[in-house]
Design brief:
about 160 residues, alpha+beta, 7-stranded antiparallel sheet, Alpha-D-Glucose-1,6-Bisphosphate, Chain A, domain 4, globular
Amino acid sequence: MTTSETIHSTFTLERHYAAPPAAVFAAWADPAVKARWFAGGGGEHELDFRVGGRERVLGRHDGKVLTFEARYQDIVQGERIVSSSTLSSDDTLSTVSITTVEFVPDGDGTRLVLTEQGTYLDGHEQPAWREQGTASQLDALTAELDALTAELDATRTAG
């Protein structure tokens, strides 16, 4: 008989971005932009951003193939994204989760609120690891939005 372990955990992360909600939302919806900040270097990324659409990221960690797959359950343009996802290491299911991302106008910028409810299976992933990885992705989004803003400002100045 095998012993299985199930951990349930929820975390919420908030960030403030200087860009308006439409621009922050677009960074989640545009496949090329999202691949840069979400998938990291070297990973394969596919994005079909629509209700019922799928997102898939393939990468490697410690010699194993990591596969992240998500389905978009709800999308409210510029306001909210809800997805369900799995993370597998090689062929072993590690995590099943539901993620909600909210884009709230905040002055001239956006307050992003990301809440993830996860089920972590058999010790293959820990809630703290997922929270840290997600926080790193949101930091990468900051850098991506800063670069896009600088590019737009340069275009305006040159034009």
